[in-house]
Amino acid sequence: MTAATDLSGRVAVVTGVCGRLGPVWTDALLGAGAVVIGLDLADEPDRRLRAVLEVHGDKDFDFHTADIGDRRALERVLAACPGAPDVLVNSAGIDSPPSAAGTGWLFGDLPAELSGSVLDVNALGTLLSCQVFGSAMAERGGGSIVNIGSLYAGLAPDPRLYEHIPVDPPFLKPPAYGMSKAAVAALTRYLAAFWGAAGVRVNTLSPGGVLGEQDAEFVAKFSAKVPLRRMAVAADLTGPLLFLASPQSSYVTGTELIVDGGYGCW
Fold first, then answer.
1. Would the pLDDT of 229 be above 90?
2. Residues whose CB is less than 8 angstroms from the CB of residue 219 and which lie 6 or more positions away in sequence, other chains included
3. Cα(73)–Cα(64) distance, rounded to whole angstroms?
4. HSE-up of residue 152 (Cα within 13 Å, Cβ side)
5. CATH superfamily, with its number, for domain 3-256
């Protein structure tokens, strides 16, 4: 942490705190001195989040079980915050990573409820979170909203990355995921213009492929498409998050910071 990214005394709300990247954002924000209000559908912090809290302690962390699709639940979390939040990280979302154990679909057979659930959580849920927490920021007169996007908001998934996965029908990245993240980027631009005069900055942070539990062949094929020849790890994402969350980016709003190792420049 540098003086420019010091968030001591600031309150940060992180949605989807038990998700794949929620613990990454929480680790970065606690490390920068922020008080973190984490919310998730889970009843309690999961293993990865508990590991973060073991490092930082939990005195500056408050966990809430809440559905981002339920405005009243979000309002209850806001009421429990020590004042309007200074930072909002909209990380809650549904993704479908490639897995041999997953269900394959032909494009024409994709269930409407599957697409609808992705759009409801990723797009509508982000909008509701901004309405509740962002409006409090605007009333207070400042804050930073970081909406978590994806490289698939602007690029199509490459089907060749999944050809080796033994599922029938072949693995298909749901189109609703990219649609929802494109909607998040559009919401970012809308709110940046709408709340600029109120001192609320709104940006999108869009990671590329993040190393997780993918199989070795997928990792190799994906990495070959990245100019830096590897997938992202947590340390690649914390700096960009703190930049957007902190006064270091005081004149940055309405933009999308793509952290993809150069994947989209080919």
1. yes
2. 211, 231
3. 9
4. 18
5. NAD(P)-binding Rossmann-like Domain (3.40.50.720)
Per-residue pLDDT, 18: 97
For the chain, percent of residues with pLDDT exceeding 90? 89
Phi and psi angles of residue 157, each rounded to the nearest 5 degrees, phi first: -60, 145
- At 5 the pLDDT is 83
Give me the mean pLDDT over the 158-162 stretch.
94
**Which pTM does this prediction carry?**
0.95
DSSP secondary structure string for all residues of the chain: --GGG--TT-EEEEESTTSSSHHHHHHHHHHTT-EEEEEESSSS--HHHHHHHHHH-STTEEEEE--TT-HHHHHHHHHHSSSS-SEEEE---------TTSPP--GGG--HHHHHHHHIIIIIHHHHHIIIIIHHHHHHT-EEEEEE--GGGTS---GGGGTTS--SSPP---HHHHHHHHHHHHHHHHHHHHHGGGTEEEEEEEE--B-SS--HHHHHHHHHTSTTSS-B-HHHHHHHHHHHHSGGGTT--S-EEEESTTGGG-
The residue among 213, 222, 220 whose CA lies nearest residue 260 is 222
What is the tens place of the pLDDT at every residue in 250-262? 999 999 999 999 9
Which residue from 92, 98, 66, 96 is spatially nearest to 79, judged by alpha carbons? 66
Closest residue by Cα to residue 149 from 181, 188, 189, 178: 181
**Which residue has tokens 């809308």?**
190
- How many whole angstroms separate alpha carbon 1 and alpha carbon 15? 23
Domain ranges of the chain: 3-256
